[in-house]
Amino acid sequence: MLSEEKLVQELKEGSETAFKHVVDSYQNMVYNTCLSIVRSEEDAEDIAQDVFVQVYQSIGAFKGESKLSTWIYRIATTKSLDFERKKKRKKRFGFVRSIFGDDSEIVINPPDFQHPGVVYDKKENASILFQAIDQLPENQKVAFLLNKVEGLSYQEVSAVLQTSVSSIESLLHRAKNNLRKILEKGYNYSPEKKTEKKTSND
């Protein structure tokens, strides 16, 4: 079995075998991470493909300062968040168009989906929870999904988000408190601005 150092070396040399090994090893992890954030199976598949394209194209910039899996998680998270930001801009534009009677209105209701990392007795419960998670500020949302849904440790989440473990603990504490309030009050509750300002501890 290849060591990670040897695997990275072969990737940098353009080995197709090494790249196939990376895809086989991390495709489920990448897909699940994307799905947690974008909540669409089709979009998650497309983003996952983009993630591996970037892995192949950018492996030369990987310096080994973190584990390969952490680096790939970071790419998957970044691409998923970028997709969400673009989608929200399109939704706002679609809402404006719908006011003026344009037939090409963009549907803004979140789709139903079943995340392979979450098991519920009823599908509706998963949909309710993920809609609540989606109302969290971005950094709380990502930290919560990586830790509670994808199962990463505090240390692993801190590596992906490039912040301290204490900051992750704080983000998760605030995320859980905000989720409790959202679920108690309904989905119009806004605990903090979505673009929560980063403090020196975040």
TrEMBL record:
Keyword Transcription regulation: yes
Record PROSITE patterns: SIGMA70_ECF
Record domain RNA polymerase sigma-70 region: where: 23-89
InterPro entries per record: RNA_pol_sigma-70-like, RNA_pol_sigma-70_dom, RNA_pol_sigma70_ECF_CS, RNA_pol_sigma70_r2, RNA_pol_sigma70_r4_t2, RNA_pol_sigma_r2, RNA_pol_sigma_r3/r4-like, WH-like_DNA-bd_sf
Residue ranges constituting the RNA polymerase sigma factor 70 region 4 type domain according to the UniProt record: 129-178
Domain of life of the native organism: Bacteria
Gene Ontology biological-process annotations: DNA-templated transcription initiation
UniProt keyword terms in alphabetical order: DNA-binding, Sigma factor, Transcription, Transcription regulation
One GO MF term: sigma factor activity
Membership in a protein family: Belongs to the sigma-70 factor family. ECF subfamily.
Cross-referenced NCBIfam families: sigma70-ECF
Protein name: RNA polymerase sigma factor
Organism: Niabella soli DSM 19437
